[in-house]
Design goal:
Elements: H1 18-33, H2 40-63
């Protein structure tokens, strides 16, 4: 889709910050809608999509099962 989307999953951190999730959601909505900035008539729908996608991301990260691949010494 887009080569410059950052990986938000990081070792030692269960959930990305609110700001990181909102930025990623905004980037995604811009990409799929084709609008960098929507018209005033579409702003509410655009903002709602960003909020919903960020929330879906939060739920995803909270639901992930993290496996520690390192063996205990």
């Amino acid at each position: 889709m887009c080569r410059n989307i950052r990986n938000l999953r990081q070792p030692g951190r269960r959930v990305p910050s609110h700001h990181e999730l909102e930025d990623a959601a905004l980037q995604f909505v811009r990409k799929i809608s084709g609008y960098r900035k929507p018209s005033r008539a579409n702003q509410e729908a655009f903002d709602l999509a960003v909020r919903q996608i960020a929330e879906a991301g939060r739920q995803l990260f909270r639901s992930l099962r993290i496996h520690n691949s390192r063996k205990a010494a």
